[in-house]
Design goal:
heterotetramer, A: alpha+beta, Aldehyde Oxidoreductase, domain 3, 4-stranded mixed sheet, 3 helices, elongated, B: Ubiquitin-like (UB roll), 5-stranded mixed sheet, two-stranded antiparallel sheet, 2 helices
């Protein structure tokens, strides 16, 4: 098992491996976000997806999100694994696990993590439909990159 | 020389995942212009750049040995 | 594997089994809450815990929480498993999994579920410390039962 | 006859997890009084009751064959 807290992988993600990374005796709550490939988006049927990453930078930016979280919610621990390559419907694209002594911080930090991933982590998604393909950009519907 | 990395649709449209550019130092904007000159259909005006894996501005300087990446709006998660 | 969406068990909970219950092709986001036994509470060291449930009523109330969630967040699916009996530090006491086409509903519905469990589900916790034991009541610090 | 279920500290203090009470029908409050009469250290005034697995009020009626449970403040999760 990969023991890095922040990683990009090209094989199926084992959710429980990510969860194990944030466990400890002073954890009372663990929140997990699992992003999966959905069949329908705005009524259009997705056949499969392809994720591409600027891997070295993506790992750095995931770690940066981890630092931001520790600063905002002390005593939490974060692990994030994002998959790249071809994914089918229901496959897991990303798993975020956050542990904390108390549940409020675990929920808030987890929701923060997925928002930040969509802002600053260089990973792109290409949708494959029956009638074509498209690289999806800017799911937040604004210019999402910010400067360092 | 600087190394230029391309991702997502930029990689597909240019047909390569990286390019090289001979220069001792220039701005990010000049790299964008260089690509537009060689690939006129590619317009990088609204595309973010990262120099050595940090987000950069158009006026930032790229030096010999640096790696500059052009990053379409991200869609991870 | 137990296929009931809402259940009380007296054996270790397998988190992934609970997650599998809420998967489907139109799921884009799954949130999971894992409540674990923490060693320190207000500086006091817990050795172990014992959970007791009014099992038949607890299952009904978990299902009621599921109904409340479907009403508030249509298109979500919920599964909850709570463990009873003796638990040691780091053992999993409860797992809540919520799936949804979109992530906002999955986070909100999950946080709602744990709050409601602490209000209306007849499950009690006894703490074992080095110097004694105590049935813990009313973690919400108000009279938590409400009338039907 | 009605069946009375006890949980958590009530179960430990009374030393049983259930009791029976002969009655054709009475209020939840009367069941509370019955227990207090037999176990004077036990005061159920602030304890919630459930009749047939639904939360109930002190004035609700318990009939022959019903199951009434006394539920200390819950602490699951």
């Amino acid at each position: 098992m990969n023991t890095e807290l922040f990683s990009i992988v090209d094989v199926p993600i084992i959710t429980d491996d990510v969860i194990q990374k944030v466990k400890s005796v002073n954890v009372g709550a663990i929140t997990v976000f699992i992003g999966t490939v959905r069949e329908l988006t705005n009524g259009k049927k997705t056949l499969s997806l392809e994720y591409q990453a600027y891997e070295s930078m993506a790992v750095k930016k995931l770690a940066k999100i981890g630092e931001e979280i520790i600063e905002k919610w002390p005593n939490t621990k974060v692990a994030i694994t994002h998959r790249v390559g071809k994914l089918n419907i229901s496959d897991v694209a990303v798993v975020i696990a956050v542990s904390s002594p108390h549940r409020e911080a675990a929920y808030e930090a987890n929701a923060f993590a997925i928002e930040r991933i969509k802002q600053i982590v260089p990973i792109w998604k290409k949708e494959y439909w029956e009638d074509g393909t498209k690289w999806i950009g800017d799911q937040l519907e604004k210019q999402s990159f910010e400067s360092k | 020389m600087i190394k230029i990395l391309l991702f997502a649709y930029l990689q597909e449209e240019i047909g390569k995942d990286s390019l090289s550019m001979e220069t001792d130092g220039c701005s990010v904007q000049q790299v964008k212009n260089y690509i537009h000159t060689h690939y006129p259909t590619i317009n990088l005006d609204q595309v973010m750049a990262a120099v050595n894996e940090e987000f950069s501005f158009d006026e930032d300087v790229v030096k010999d040995g640096d790696v500059i990446a052009f990053l379409p709006p991200v869609s991870g998660g």
